[in-house]
What does this fold into?
Amino acid sequence: MTKKELAEKLSYKFSDIDKEDLEYIVELFFEIIKEELKKGNRVELRNFGIFTLKKTKGTIFQNPKNNQRYYVKEKYRVLFKIGKEFKKRLNTPFLASLDLGTQTFRLCIGKKFNGDALFLMKKRENVRLGEGLGIEGIISPSAFVRGLECLKKFREELSKYEIENYKAIGTEVFRKAKNAKEFIEKAKEETGFEIEVISPEKEVELSLKGIIWGLKILPTEIKNFVTVDVGGGSSEIAYINDGERKWSKSIDLGAVVLKEIFNLKYPLNVKVLRSLREYIREKLSSVPTDHPEEIIITGGTASLLGGLDLKLNQYIPEKLHGHRITKENLEKLIKKLSNFDLERLRRVRGMEEGREDIVLPGALIYLEILEHFNKESMLLNEYGILEGTLLSLIEDYNLAKL
It folds into this structure.
């Protein structure tokens, strides 16, 4: 990582500070370390390590090619001694979670240190395993291949970090596809991954675990809220009051399946949009309304809407987490995108490759969610089922060590 890249990373966390100022701070930080070392002082970064300057003696060096000898004068070398806490953190084994959904396969690598979970690396790939699920009820041959290829890439990542402990969960597509068992067996045979197909109730439980973790990071306390995760094959909705789940529902309503059921052709006219909204509204009619303080959204569709609302050129979870999407902006976005063909949708700033044809079904579901609960905005939480699965694995891992 370069100093510029470090300043870029810091800008995600400290958005109130100008990027130029952060670059100056990073430059100044290393300049101070350099100047102190020149003075012969040691520089200690508590819990990280110690920098010191060591003087090496001059020596005679012989060139092996011509046997000529030379004198190499004395030099100064910077030495770094790793701190105990940092060393312990590095030596803590990595763990991994895999969220295998209808649209996206995601991987999270992390570890637990001093009672805190560290989410160190995330990867995602729009596999669309649920291609054909809405009409034929199976994982199509092409989706089958894409899914296995993605799992092979994830296996390489686990090998790179020498990860032995992982948890791979399958959601709606694995619950519905007639040939899901065949895919699971093939995945075990070709990649070594054992996939656990979880129930809608378990899906909500893991998602909520991640969401609550994410809420701790935000500078606000929310006790009464509804969580929504619109996936490719279904939508998981739960009502939380004072940390207790009052109810949860899995609705047969997903962005990929919706696109296939209606055989959507872009652009979408007003009649198609109205038809979609009526269908979504009917599906949501069984969901209790209650009076939540907030609607908290998570998952791939939610992140996509946040990226489009913020017009991000790349996926930056630090900027998305805690972002508020208003009903007014969502309506404007739907109106704008519905006039575009697929090629134009791909070029919209903030669009994620592989989601251009399902962005509108997903956005419409969230719009109807806001209508259903009579809310004017929703809060984006970048922590969900993927992180919740890793947190669950960390708990199981710690219990196993006792």
